[in-house]
């Protein structure tokens, strides 16, 4: 036999010494379903659907969208969290400032989801020109 002889250590060790390591079944290109962006959109869409179910006439044709950061367009009492454009019938929520907001008394997934829902609620209340307790009466009585 000519050439180099293989030593037992030169072989790449695999798990249990068998065939090469397999890739994940779904591959590396599938987005993370539990990531920041999909989680924010799922939480915000849930709150939007709840409010649209309670106010189908007032919110009919109103587009509620998501952006990464504020653009300075529109009006709002909280310009870092959302923007309202009544002439275009749009509400734009800004993901990064909402997700990076400080001041949660408990910093966990549940309270972050509550804060996203709270921001959606505030934006819709401002768009409708109503106070938060008027929009969903009885919802916050336990506070």
Could you explain how this protein is built, in words?
The chain is an alpha+beta fold and 143 residues long. It has a domain at 36-133. It is built from four helices and three strands. The chain has helices at residues 36-54, 95-99, 109-128, 132-135; strands at 63-67, 82-85, 90-94. Strand 2 (82-85) and strand 3 form a beta hairpin. It starts with 35 loop residues before the first helix and ends in an 8-residue tail after the last helix. The mean pLDDT is 83.
Tell me the distance between the termini: 83 Å
Gyration radius over CA? 25 Å
Order of helices and strands: HEEEHHH
Low-pLDDT parts are: none
Report the total helices. Answer: 4
Q: Helical percent range?
A: 25-40%
Query: Beta-sheet strand percentage?
Result: 5-15%
Mean pLDDT: 83
Supply the helix-strand structural class. Answer: alpha+beta
> In which order are the strands of the major sheet placed?
1-3-2
What key attributes describe this structure?
143 residues, alpha+beta, 4 helices, 34% helix
Summarize the entry for a quick read.
This protein has 143 residues and is an alpha+beta fold. It has helices spanning 36-54, 95-99, 109-128, 132-135; strands at 63-67, 82-85, 90-94.
């Amino acid at each position: 036999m000519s050439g180099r002889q293989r030593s037992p250590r030169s072989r790449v060790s695999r798990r249990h010494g068998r065939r090469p390591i397999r890739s994940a079944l779904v591959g590396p290109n599938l987005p993370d379903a539990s990531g920041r962006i999909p989680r924010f959109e799922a939480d915000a869409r849930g709150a939007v659907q709840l409010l649209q179910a309670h106010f189908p006439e007032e919110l009919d044709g109103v587009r509620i969208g998501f952006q990464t950061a504020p653009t300075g367009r529109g009006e709002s009492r909280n310009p870092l969290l959302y923007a309202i454009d009544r002439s275009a019938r749009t509400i734009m929520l800004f993901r990064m400032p909402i997700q990076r907001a400080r001041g949660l008394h408990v910093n966990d997934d549940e309270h972050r989801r509550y804060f996203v829902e709270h921001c959606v609620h505030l934006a819709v209340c401002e768009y409708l020109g109503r106070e938060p307790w008027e929009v969903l009466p009885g919802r916050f009585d336990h506070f």
